[in-house]
Amino acid sequence: MEASKKRQSEMVQEISGTNPLKCMKCGKCSASCPAYEKMDIKPHQFVSYVINEDVEALAKCDSLWVCLSCFACVERCPRDVKPGKIVDAARQLAVRQKGGSYLVPDEIPALVDEDLPQQLLVSAFRKFRR
Amino acid sequence: MHGIGVFVCHCGSNIAATVDVKKVVEMARLEPGVVHAEEYQYMCSEAGQERIATAIREKNLKGIVVCSCSPRMHEATFRKCAEKAGLNPYMVEIANLREQCSWIHKDIEEGTEKAVILARAAIAKVSLNTSLLPGESRVTKRALVIGGGIAGIQTALDIADAGYEVDIVEKTPSIGGKMAQLDKTFPTLDCSACILTPKMVDAAAHERINLYTYSEIEKVSGFVGDFTVDIRKKARYVNMDKCTGCGVCMEKCPSKKALSEFNSGLNNRPAIYTPFAQAIPNVPVIDPTQCTKLKTGKCGICERFCQAGAIDYTQKDEIVTRKYGAIVVATGFEIIKLDNLEEYAYSQSKDVITSLELERIMNAAGPTKGHLERLSDGKAPKNIVFVQCVGSRCDESKGKPYCSKICCMYTAKHAMLIRDKYPDVNVTVFYIDVRTPGKNFDEFYRRAVEEYGVNYVKGQVGKVAPQPDGSLLVHGVDLLDGKQLKISADMVVLAAAVEPSPSVRKIATMLTASIDTNNFLTEAHPKLRPVESPTAGVFLSGICQGPKDIPETVSQAGAAAVKVVGLLAKDKLLTNPCTAKPDELMCNGCGSCANVCPYGAISYEVKEINDHGIRENRRVAVVNSALCQGCGACTVTCPSGTMDLQGFSNRQILAEVDAICR
Amino acid sequence: MSMNTEFKPKIVAFCCNWCSYAGADLAGSSRLAYPADVKIIRVPCSCRVNPMFILRAFEKGADGVIICGCHPGDCHYSTGNYYARRRMTLLFSMLDYMGIERGRTRVEWVSAAEGVKFSNTMNEFVDAVRTLGPNKRLGDLRCKD
Amino acid sequence: MKELLQDGTVNRVLGWKKGDLPYNPEPAFFKSAEELDEFIYDGFCGANLSKYMIAASALEGKTLVLLKPCDSYSFVQLMKEHRVDREKAYIIGVGCKGKLDIERIKAEGVKGIESISGAEIDGDCSTLKIGTIYGEKEVAYKDAMLERCHVCKGKEHRIYDELMLESADTLDSGRFEAVEAIENMTPEQKFAFFKNELSKCIRCNACRNVCPACSCRKCVFDSTKFDSAQKANVDEFEEKMFHIIRAFHVAGRCTDCGECSRVCPQGIPLHLFNRKFIKDINEYYGEYQAGNNVEDETPLTDFTFDDLEPGERR
Asked: Confidence band (pLDDT; 50, 70, 90) for B501?
């Protein structure tokens, strides 16, 4: 059990390519986050979950799906910790566990709205891809 | 060589734990030339040294090897010990059994085997050692201080008061530095100018201090005790002897578009200017990039109005060459550029300013005459947000990895002063940590919170967004309350990181003083020699060595001065005898050794050489051993091996190689 | 047990007194281990290292030679390591040209503060030399089969 | 030449003297007009006379020296190293139509040579007519040329007081082709190649003695300073390392005159060492020709802040 928790935490670090220990808890990520109000776990708290090897809680939280993947936090983080990448990695872990109940790529073009901003699409792909 | 003694130190258990010292002694005895070998608990102790001295005397040892810690640690100790016992100090070699053996190896067999080899190499080397006598070099009793800020001024004053001549070289037209730009100082809130200007006057009036303002270091050669420095005195276009400092020229100058460096570029100054009213020397300079006369040949107004006839458009840069015994670097700091931190909108809004700019705004001699107002529209701000750690404690892609150390305190000072003078202004400080180690520092910060009602919020600002109505929307977070904040401010003050003055890199290269990745000068030892550079005769004062506030800078300035005085008080210095030595018989006189010598220590003479009975005049290399520092560059460039390095001769090094590879 | 794990290479490291030797001391005081195969010779500057020393080491049975000096720009003698860099660039290129394995020679700039780098460098270098096995080629250069 | 010698402008002439065979003229000092009768300058006068000027610089009066275009580089390099005295030399730059290699002629299967014509400097130098005990044979001049002439640096003298005789262009192959070919070998092939070549070395020191850059009063290999003296016969160190160290010592100073390879009795292509250094220097630090002039900084006593690191490639 302990080992699998540790493994999950390592997976997040591996996928995200970040080192949560670099965080100095300045909160700039939370200050920058446009989705802050809707989040249950705030951006500056992500690193603690990884350090404390509680990725499970992170993978279950709403923030995972509230995050817009705008990467403002990644861009501005003074220590290059990239909370957005951490949440992205947690999301991938969650997605991997859930199994394949997602869109087939061929179905997508029909569903795309012309007026939709590109960035949203990319974010959506990042969030919902398998 | 016969008569070698080997002394193996246990260093308590530091060496003895992973090296079988008895075995090392046993093996050393088998080496050729070794007549004595022993081990002892602590060779560097008095009892240990006594053992060595006794053995040297009783067994008439010709050379000794001490197997102990690094030679960087105790080579000098054992050399002294040998000298006292009547052995030339350069007949001592150290085998580094601690740092380079016992401390890195866990296996005793492996450690012992390596220790035996290291001892063997040292024995092989010492058997080829020759007695060397250090030379003497004179000490020029004059010091150079580079930089005329508070660090440089204080160092110069202390050296001069101790009785030695000092020159200060300052690149701007006046001494005073950054401290002259400050309004008040923490934690006492006394006026910066009030405490600095008397020191500036003292320095200028001191009979043993000579100021070279508007001057830069051009070239440095020589070594401790005997540096030769070229100083470029930039053309002032004003004759310093004639100028009375009346200031009419500055009033009359029609070209007033240049940004005032002293006021952080917040207002303008004329082309002919002194940086500030209390400048020392009170002699203006003409900025050649701004002066119409110098650019187009037309104008000449200042010359016409100058009663003293001091204006001289034909002045040229002048190089003065001076000799010094010691050099102090006090080049200070600059505020970093904020290009990588665009989220704070520094370049987008005039009302986002740095703390140094606020310093000028609050100063009575500043661009707003001391009135707190917005630079965009001149209105009095109602909400001010301070942002801490701007570019400090950052990943290297964004800013500086270090803490700038002074920002927490000056921000508390600013917040307090504003609340004191304008009680209706709301002041919010976004901080990550408030760092206040220092006498009366935390008390000062607490007063800002408790007495002056400054609103401290833990959390970094994410973004500053200029609004169409001219206000600034600050996106922040209160991490303790778990709330995201959006504060409408009308002024944002950024505590931008400090960095060493960019000029220091060039100066460090000229001085061969080492510099770290952040361009701070490296000290000789971080704890025990904090004001000395590893380069002998070069000392450090102020922020050039690392971030520090005024009291720390002044103490370091005093410490550097004492070190300088200690050096200048000596009449002669002993020089390193490990210098290059040419063999005249072999020398081709080809010139390649002089080409690679960084000290100009090699010259060529035509000498009559007696080469096995054949007398002829030959051009041969001659080494000035006072200039030679013993790097050995010449020894390798010389194809015939004419040049050899005493103490590290070809044969000695080859003997070590052979012993290691045996 | 393969040959490589038993093979204990002889490695000679020339370290300049001001930076790399101090870096090695720091590795020691920080207890950063590296193989005992490495034996350090102290020289005042990397520019003191004569190609003769390197070839002599190989001749006497060294399996690898590494030269460590101050980082370019930080030389205690201001320019020594720049000369060393040119000399070693050419010498190592020549050895490579003669078919002597490139992995047996190395130059690394290690400052007095880089104990970790010193230790890592030595670990890497010893590994590389171990993989190459005992040095035979220089010895064999003039022996006809 | 005779006039200059007779009117006292020069005290002696440094040139080539007829040998005992048609193809082996040798360097010689001529002190009188009579002695000059034995003077010769033809296609076999490959010897670079500039090194003899070191000794001549110590003699009384001026020496008239004949330098081929490629020899003049060596002379300039020696001037740069303060080894020869320009004031003591009267330099006649002689033209060159390529110099011949008797080994190449022999390699063509020519044996029992009695006479050779067609090597005269004033001829057209296209065909050699060789009289042998087996009858007359013909060899194309070009095929008999030394390797160095095929990669000629050009027929312009770097220094002279007077020019004589015509030159002919002989450059017809790439200077670094052979070096590149070796560079492209596998480490095993490289090793095998050099092992084969160096195994022939008998340490006769001919290469060292002829080399204008190897002009040390005392060679390190004869000196006590490196523990390498008097061991030539017992310690194989010198023998193995000699050529590497020799090439290193002349790196940046070697003008690529090719004398080392010309004189090697074992036919070891020693220029391949020097030329490798020259190629590397050109590639890493910019084109450099030793002996071009006296002003240029020698590559190994120079540097730039952003030089390549060892092993790095541009």
From this structure: very high
Q: What is the mean pLDDT of residues B596-622?
A: 89
Closest CB to B640 among D80, D82, D216: D216
Q: Domain B580-645, what fold?
A: Alpha-Beta Plaits (3.30.70)
Which sequence spans correspond to the domains of chain C?
Answer: 11-136
**Positive or negative CA dihedral for C36, C37, C39, C45?**
negative
Nearest residue on chain A to B433, alpha-carbon basis: A26
Nearest CA among B342, B337, B334 for reference residue B519: B334
Nearest residue, CB atoms, D194 vs list C72, C93, C99:
C99
Q: How far is B430 from chain A (nearest CA, A)?
A: 10
Cβ–Cβ < 8 Å for B90, B79: yes
> Looking at residue C139, what is its pLDDT?
62
Contacts of B460 in chain A (CB under 8 A): 26-28, 31, 78
* Burial environment of residue D109 by CB neighbours within 10 A (0 to 12, 13 to 18, 19 or more): exposed
Do the domains B142-234+317-332+501-568 and B336-499 sit in the same CATH topology, yes or no? yes
Q: What is the pLDDT of residue D118?
A: 86
Token readout for D226 is: 């490196």
Q: Tell me which architecture the domain covering B142-234+317-332+501-568 has in CATH.
A: 3-Layer(bba) Sandwich (3.50)
CB spacing of A44 vs B479 below 8 angstroms: yes
What order of strands is seen across the sheet that includes strand C105-109?
A: C38-43, C11-16, C64-69, C105-109
| Phi, psi of B346, deg, nearest 5 | -60, -40
Interface residue of C50, C83, C86 to substitute, partner D, most D CBs within 10 Å = C86
D42 close to D25: Cβ distance less than 8 angstroms: yes
For B139-148, write each residue's pLDDT tens digit: 999 999 999 9
Mean of per-residue pLDDT scores for chain B: 94
Whether the model pTM is above 0.90: no
Return d(Cα B183, Cα C117) in angstroms, integer.
Answer: 45
Q: Considering Cα of D193, then D196, then D201, then D206, what sign does the dihedral take?
A: negative
Provide, for chain A, the percentages of residues in helix, strand and coil under a 3-state DSSP scheme, each rounded to the nearest 5: 65, 0, 35
Per-residue model confidence (pLDDT) at position D239: 61
Residues B255, B260, B265: CA angle, nearest 5 degrees: 120
Per-residue pLDDT at D234 exceeds 50: no
Q: Is the pLDDT assigned to residue B400 strictly greater than 90?
A: yes
Phi/psi-derived region of residue A27, left when phi > 0, alpha when psi is between -120 and 50, beta in every other case: left
CATH number of C11-136: 3.40.50
Out of 3.40.50, 1.10.20, 2.60.40, 3.30.70, the CATH code matching B4-126 is 3.40.50
pLDDT values of chain A reduced to their tens digit, one per residue, 130 residues = 577 888 889 989 998 889 999 999 999 999 999 999 999 999 999 999 999 999 889 888 989 888 988 899 999 999 999 899 999 898 888 877 765 555 666 776 777 777 777 777 777 777 665 4
What the block records as the tokens of B407 is 């920002």
From B394, B461, B482, residue closest to A31, measured CB to CB? B461
- Return the pLDDT at A113: 73
What is the pLDDT at residue B382? 96
State the fold for domain A2-128: Fumarate Reductase Iron-sulfur Protein; Chain B, domain 2 (1.10.1060)
Q: Given an 8 Å threshold on Cβ–Cβ distance, is B645 in contact with C48?
A: yes
Contact D285, D306 (CB under 8 A): no
D302 touches chain B (CB under 8 A): yes
Distance CA B57, CA B49 (A): 12
- The answer to whether B82 and B72 have CB atoms below 8 angstroms apart is no
Looking at beta carbons, which residues of chain C come within 8 Å of D312? 89
Chain-centroid distance, C-alpha C55? 12
Residue of B nearest to C80 (CA): B633
